[in-house]
Amino acid sequence: MSSNKDILPPELIKDKGSLHPINHMKDSIMSLLVSFGFEVVDGPEIETEEFNFDMLNIKKTHPARQMHDTFYVEKKLNLLRTHTSPVQIRGMLEKKPPLAFISGGKVYRKDDDATHLPMFHQVEGIFVDENVSFAQLKDLIYKIIYSLFGESVELRFRPSYFPFTEPSAEVDILSKEGKWLEILGCGLVNPIVLENCNIDSNKYSGLAFGLGIERIAMLKHGITDIREFYKSNLDFLSQFK
Amino acid sequence: MKIAYSHLVSHIQENPTLEMVSDRLFQLGHEHEVEGNIFNMEFTPNRGDCLSVNGLLRDLSVFYTINCDQKVYTEKLDNLQIDFENLSQDICPHISFLKLEIDNIPHTYKGYLNDYFTDLNLNKNNFFTDISNYISYETGQPTHCYDANKVNGKLIFQELNTNQEFETLLDKKINLTDKNSVFLLNNEVINLAGVVGGKRTSCSSETKTVLVECAFFKPEKIIGKSVKYDIQSEASHKFERSVDPECHETVIRRFINLVDEYSNIKKMSFVSYKYEDIKAYKIPVDVNKINQIIGINISEDEYLSYLLKLGFTVDNSLITVPSYRSDIETQNDLAEEVARAIGYNNILKKELSIPKGKISNNYDIENKLRYFLLDQGFYEVVNSPFVNISSDMSITVDNPLDSNREYLRTNVISSLMDNLIYNERRQKDSIKLFEISDVYTLKDNQIDRIRRLSIIASGRAGHNYEDFSKKINIKYLTKLFKNGLPGENFDFRILERDSAKTKIKNEIIGCEVDISNFSTEVLNYKEISKSPDTFIQYCPISEL
Predict the structure, then answer these.
(1) Which of A166, A193, A205 to mutate to test the interface with B (most CBs of B within 10 A)?
(2) A236: nearest CA partner in chain B
(3) B342 Cβ under 8 Å from any chain A Cβ
(4) Which has the closest alpha carbon to A119: B437, B484, B263?
(5) Nearest one of B286, B535, B6 to A150, comparing CA atoms
(6) How far apart are alpha carbons B515 and B362 in whole angstroms?
(7) How high is the ipTM of this complex?
(8) How far apart are CA B373 and CA B480, in angstroms?
(9) Model-level pTM?
(10) Shortest CB distance from B344 goes to which of A100, A157, A221?
(11) What distance in Å separates the CA atoms of residue B366 and residue B517, rounded to the nearest whole number?
């Protein structure tokens, strides 16, 4: 026989919600970068062509500027930013070096399939100081990737092309299946971009990098269809508590 | 672009294996898939110079000894008399023509011309077009072949406003609209410049006299036409990424040599029009700058040896950029050449330290709100801003992906309502959602940006024995939020479910508040929920 002492009220378990997995990933990456010394800056999602393209050395002829790649609004007066880089332009125009900014948020491109959506998220960072080198950029990228995927992960740098960085690189990690997966783009800030922001490129140089949040979240959580993130299905969201 | 390994390695003295060449191409930044003995290349848009066998060999010469010993016709060429006028010299600053007549038409090929079609599994067309296609593959320069007997009259190159039908040599009819760069014959378009030629003047299997056009079009003047008219031509791919403006005579002489290998040339003549002196870039030799950019320490001799192998020349402490490298203008561009030659993965990392930056208070308020809502059982959602409902304040997307969603939302709560109904239809009996997002509206023709928190809830208050029988209503939510954040006003209201067309009768409660309305008292909230430390492996909903 049990005594009265053994009879306890059932445990009152309060329902808990969860952060959206993309925002959680974005916050995690931004917190990491803040711990490295970066300052968070914020900017609008509706941008001008000047800030989204011209100031970043993306020429009028660049395919990204065409109507089939970029969403324009209000009779082409403005556009939905295609990357978070314009925020860094705004930051560089406001402050003088040395400066270290990160910005994260929604960006928009005219894509729609299982791995691309018209709206997705990026985190980008920039560091401008005297004598910033590609070798230092590599150090930073290693720290970011090791923090996200562990120090046993194998990574490689490949030359690439972005109008706003030179030299430019893409970074891949080796998956468990032995496949190289692209993780981020980076490079030394193109001196033209520094000059556009009234920064003396003979004295200062900079590094920049950008990560696609959905891509990293898909890898970390094993999600194969990017559209799952935006169905707002509680069966999906409740898995990320 | 597909390039056969055998077509490359036949010019490389060291005879590297396919895997070795593949590794070197990756080191240079030339992404590709290996399909048997074929490299399916995907070049970055700044490297139009690599879109050929010779182009890739020029890049690989930084690692290997390259023998580019392709024969060209070396005899003097007669001057071609052609009735041609260039009315848009700013678009086409350099153009050349070759007129050539043969007495027999070959139908079979041998050697490398045969290998080109066989190895890459390409269809043959007619003799002159086949030579033209091969020349483009080998040198990177597209040429266009007109049947010379069909070009009678004055040939004009011009950018003009056109509104006429044009039948391409691919049998596709397109309607040319707005400004296009075209070749006209007796006022009729016979060639959409840099994209595709016309059917009326194209070569056939009977053509014995050809007029070969070899041009340089400024990429910025022709870009977008292939997409506009849905014509994916190799020529447009190359012209849009820029071709070598100084290669015409070599390419034409190579063309003649190839024709000469297969047929007897009866007559030929050549003319070249250059309207603008395209000056080579010159950049000072500065190895210290290169070392600083990359973070290495190499000697000037080593630095220059890389550039010389890549075709740059050095004179009087000035580096001259070869005419085919339109992507090189600055010291940073040269640094990238050196870094690629060394290999990005071989550059040692150097410790980077960044001074601590400031942390914004706004994000702390937002984060506190998010964790407060998590503690109350709410799920964060993220919605697309594209909607089909407009108001006076709506911003219109000029080129929406879906014509039924051409406006940007002016509130967040409508998106949450859709999310709630979606989950109700999936038998969810307790739904609590929130979203924090910027909302953009037009006010006095100015774009206004407001950051909003929107909350929606319906159904059971929760699933524990205390909340299971309680229904979410204004009183319940107001009390819950007052307990957690006593100083803040959420102003909950009942939302109409008229448009929802569901049989569920639960009240839907919601609110939308500007983030700027919250006070710093929010920062005093002590959250219970913590961010998950580890990343959860997702399980597909179908397997739950």
Answers:
(1) A166
(2) B541
(3) no
(4) B437
(5) B535
(6) 9
(7) 0.92
(8) 10
(9) 0.89
(10) A157
(11) 11
